[in-house]
Every structure is written in structure tokens, then in C-alpha cells.
Design goal:
single chain; 188 residues; mainly beta; SH3 type barrels; OB fold (Dihydrolipoamide Acetyltransferase, E2P); 3 domains; six-stranded antiparallel beta sheet; 16 strands
């Protein structure tokens, strides 16, 4: 069991049977009263956030999460299908569960799967991924009025990012998956 002193950013706890990750915490000392812990936690299954205050004697059960590797196979509607690399079992996660990670998945890419009580609940992808540009407008010299030197590019995953004018269809670019921004063009 964890006390309020053990709750820090990144700690996983189990609340009402669901796994949560602490994304913000603040210890507040009231005048005569005891300390209060203000928290903001993210539900790892649904992605929703929970803001709650806890008094000094509160106890928490630690969420037991495990990780495994899986390959992304394909997308069907709002579901994304994966295959576990060790057991070769297939499973699906919804777009809602994956959140922004869904924007950077390409067929046959590898992901770290987060498992809770033996069931996959989400994935972790690398902070930077290389993706092929499938469509972009041609950059015209002189189209830089008001300092806008970017254009839209559609990636092989179907996601659109802003790229510099020199990026062309067929180029492979590196994208920061946390910010969703272009990093650099990758030489093959």
C-alpha cells in the first residue's frame, strides 16, 4: 500500500479497479488542519483525467503494470490490431485508448504494450518516429509571406504535419510523437 507521501509524478495507482498514473501532485499544509494532497491523475484505460484531494491518512493500492512488445498489424474502422511478439496472440485497441499514439502507427511497426491484469490497455511508441510522406504540395519559392515557411504533408499513417518547403512526396521524415512536429528529413 502507498501513502500520500509515495504519490509522485509517474506513479501508477489502482482506484476503483482502474489503473491511474499521477500526472500532477501538490502537498498543501492547511493552517491548523493536517496536510492535503492535491492530485491530477490520468486513467490509463480511458485516457480521462481525475482531479482529487486526499487527506493525510489515505492509502493507495499500487497498479501492477507489465510491458511487452507487439507489432501493429492493421486498422479496421476505429480499432487497431496488434500481435504480441512472444505469444503471437492478436488483440485490438480502440482509437480512444491509443489517443495521439494512433497518429504515428504504420503497418509492421513495433510498439511497447502496457498490460494491466494481463490485458493490453495502451501502447508506448518511441519519442521520434520515421514516417514516409505520401502527399504534399510542391513548395513554391517566394511563398514565404508573413514568415510561414511550412506546408502540410500527409504521412503514411494518414496523419498531417507541417513540414518545410523542401520536403517532397516520397521523402522519409522524423516526427516528434510527443509534440507532433517535424524534426528532420531522414536520408535512406
Amino acid at each position: 500500500m502507498l501513502s500520500i507521501n509515495d504519490l509522485k509524478t509517474g506513479v501508477n495507482v489502482k482506484i476503483d479497479g482502474a489503473p491511474y498514473e499521477v500526472i500532477y501532485f501538490q502537498h498543501v499544509k492547511m493552517g491548523r488542519g493536517g496536510a492535503v494532497l492535491r492530485t491530477k491523475m490520468k486513467n490509463l484505460v480511458t485516457g480521462s483525467t481525475l482531479e482529487k484531494n486526499y487527506k493525510g491518512g489515505a492509502k493507495f493500492e499500487e497498479a501492477e503494470l507489465s510491458r511487452s512488445k507487439a507489432n501493429f498489424l492493421y486498422k479496421d474502422g476505429e480499432d487497431y490490431f496488434f500481435m504480441d511478439n512472444q505469444t503471437f496472440e492478436q488483440f485490438s485497441l480502440s482509437k480512444e485508448q491509443l489517443g495521439e499514439n494512433a497518429n504515428y502507427l504504420r503497418e509492421d511497426s513495433e510498439a511497447d504494450v502496457v498490460n494491466f491484469e494481463g490485458k493490453p490497455i495502451n501502447i508506448d511508441i518511441p519519442k521520434k518516429m520515421d514516417l514516409k510522406v505520401t502527399q504534399t504540395a510542391t513548395g513554391v519559392r517566394g511563398d514565404t509571406a508573413q514568415g510561414s515557411v511550412t506546408k502540410d504533408a500527409i504521412l503514411e499513417s494518414g496523419h498531417t504535419v507541417k513540414v518545410p518547403l523542401f520536403v517532397e512526396t516520397g521523402d522519409i521524415i522524423r516526427v516528434n510523437t510527443e509534440t507532433g512536429k517535424y524534426v528532420e528529413r531522414v536520408k535512406e
